[in-house]
Amino acid sequence: MKTIPYLTSAYLAPVQYYTKLYACATAYVEQHDHYVKQTYRNRCHIATADGVLALSIPTEKPATLKCEMKDIRISDHGNWRHLHWNALCSAYRHSPFFDYYEDDFRPFYEQRYTFLYDFNEALCDLVCRLIDIRPRIRRTTAYKQTFAPDEEDDRELIHPKRPYADDPAFLPKPYYQVFSAKHGFLPNLSIADLLFNMGPESLLVLRDSRLIKNT
Fold first, then answer.
1. Is the pTM of this model over 0.70?
2. 49-74 per-position pLDDT tens digit
3. Cβ-contact 160, 49 below 8 angstroms
4. Orientation of helix 116-131 relative to helix 98-105, angle to 10°
5. Is pLDDT at 214 greater than 60 in this prediction?
6. How far apart are CA 28 and CA 56, in angstroms?
7. Are 20 and 135 in contact, with CB atoms under 8 Å apart?
8. Which residues pair with 132 in a beta bridge?
């Protein structure tokens, strides 16, 4: 039986996140959780010549401390679109598949999105299409606290401050990275790292990074 994961919204989420989408037929992405900074909701990690770099999308200060994720607005502060795109180009220009996918990703750093959730959702749809996985990804209609046996609450499991070893279903499969000779293999980076380095074989890496196989 395939499980139904419940996930947070995430900006170019890590490989761990996409192993959940690879293995499911249906997934729910939470939009009614309270927005929390320093999570994958607005942050991703990429590999650069100097090591791991965190890219964070600035957000407007919410009106209340308990603002729901669906209401979080992207801020234009700091020219972040230009900075993020330049960082991705610098990090992956010499990767095997960056030129192949460049035109798919560039528009996200040229077009303005009002809400962070919408931006993340559109990027996730693109990544799933490029990797060739087709889960039905749905928005939650309310914040859920109890789950059926075939449902899996992964909303707090996938977190930059939580070790991926806490996830019994995930063990990152090493793959080629541009700067591996300098830094060794850097596990569980943004899905962009996997896609730009491995292209169509990203699907196989996701498959081989799962410890629990659905039937």
1. yes
2. 999 999 999 999 887 778 999 999 99
3. no
4. 150
5. no
6. 23
7. no
8. none
C-alpha distances (whole Å) from 214 to each of 17, 23, 143, 170, 189 are 16, 7, 26, 13, 24
Query: What H or E segment, with its residue span, contains residue 118?
Result: helix 116-131
End-to-end CA gap in the chain = 5
Return the number of other C-beta atoms located less than 10 Å from residue 102's C-beta.
15
Q: Which of 2, 4, 29, 205 is nearest to 125 (CA)?
A: 29
The per-residue pLDDT for range 157-203, each reduced to its tens digit, is 999 999 999 999 999 999 999 999 999 999 999 999 999 999 999 99
Phi, psi for 147 (deg, rounded to 5): -130, 145
Instruction: Identify the pLDDT of residue 173.
Output: 98
